[in-house]
Amino acid sequence: MAVTLDQLEEFLKQKEMNYERDDEENLIQTGIGDSENSGMIFIRSLDDGKNFLLQLEPIKKDKSGMFDIDFSHQNINKVLMFLMYKNYSYKHGKWEYNFNDGDLRFSISIPLEDAIMTFDQFDTLIRVCYSSLDEIGSISYILENGEIPEEKSGEEKMAEMLRKMLSEIEGKKSDSDDEGI
Q1: SS3 for the chain, per residue?
Q2: What gap in Å lies between CA 25 and CA 27, rounded to an integer?
Q3: Contact 143, 69 (CB under 8 A)
Q4: What is the number of alpha carbons within 13 Å of residue 107 lying toward its C-beta?
């Protein structure tokens, strides 16, 4: 067997992630997120461990439910075009959209056959899911404005990330100032 729920559970423990295991569904679910976006991850070992499936379902910003998109939305074609472009640029995983119920998810499927999944591989796939959440802001923008946002350069993305980290550090520093430290 290439990967089992027991092994996947151990990987989640190593990452110190909270999770729920459902042996009847052969499934482990966990969540990821930050102050901007969050999602539920569903992890499955299929076909006696020969196939691994990891699916991320984004959650609405207001946490009221899953981030679904009605097929009749006026900007659905632009969202789908954006998702196709993103799928082309990803090394692992792809965005999927269900036309019947509006489900949007990011999915990674790996045929392991007789290979054994390592913690490093699992960790990489979790990080890929986490980074895919960044697209939710762009998808929301497209839905609201009907325009596909321009790609930021690597330097612009890094500068934005550093500004965000600095503001979080400054926020924590001002909180500790109240304690006289």
Answers
A1: CCCCHHHHHHHHHHCCCCEEEECCCCEEEEEEECCCCEEEEEEEEECCCCEEEEEEEEECCCCCCECCCCCCCCCHHHHHHHHHHHHHHCCCCEEEECCCCCCEEEEEEEECCCCCCCHHHHHHHHHHHHHHCCHHHHHHHHHHHCCCCCCCCHHHHHHHHHHHHHHHHHHHHHHHHCCCC
A2: 5
A3: yes
A4: 11
Spell out, as residue ranges, where the chain has pLDDT lower than 70: 1, 152-154, 157, 172-181
Span 126-149, pLDDT tens digits: 999 988 988 998 999 999 999 988
Structure tokens at 117: 């999944």
Token pair 């550090």 is found at 169
- The pTM for the full model equals 0.78
